[in-house]
Amino acid sequence: MSMFARLAALGSATLGEAWPGARILADPPRPLAPEMALAGRALPLSCRPGDNLALHRAIAAAEPGDVLVLDYGGDCGTGPFGEIMALACQLRGIAGLVTDGAVRDSRQIVGLGLPVFARGLAIRGTTKTDTGRVGAAVTLGGTEIRPGDIIVADADGIVVLPAAEAGAALAAAEARAEKEAGIIARLRAGETTLQIMGLEQQEHRT
Question: Is 27 annotated as a binding residue?
Fold first, then answer.
């Protein structure tokens, strides 16, 4: 299993708690379907609200495994990304899209299986005249996202890691997941969380 697949399987909550250097987006964009999850390298881009030319440019420039991270200025009045772009991303091996804006064709995107995280849905289309910016850092949810940062996103939230820390963060998250698996086994065997976490004495003191 690849590093990205392992990160996605561990999930944002485990990674965010296990690694001190993880940057967690505040009030993050939400997945179009609860089961959507992704992990990959960030390709940040910015579009002027109402225009999606920069998205077309980013899809053409992206490498397999990249996550498009779109700064749309928080605007949800137009849907700059839909079924055609989702298919184009899928065919190029793009891992998914994270945006502080809206998208359209949600049912079709879910059917394709491309992970898309957005603030909302909007039917209104866009122009294609402003080149925007592709490959420059953006800020979403109060968090700066730089080219090559690692993005892990699922229904719990979105976590950003510097690429240089990905291996250590993965190891820490896997250790935490192993510890939690042990706790779950003890719960199934009949112990309480008070017993497992050594909280019984504190309960008596209070």
Answer: no
The pTM (predicted TM-score) of the whole model is 0.93
Distance CA 28, CA 104 (A): 18
**Per-residue b/e over 94-105, b at no fewer than 16 CB within 10 Å?**
bbbbbbbbbbbb
84 is in an annotated binding site: yes
- According to the annotation, is 82 in a ligand binding site? yes
Positions of the chain with pLDDT lower than 70, given as ranges: 202-206
Binding site annotation covers 196?
no
What structural domains and CATH numbers belong to the chain?
A: 3-163 (3.50.30.40), 169-205 (no CATH)
Nearest Cα residue to 159 out of 113, 106, 117:
117
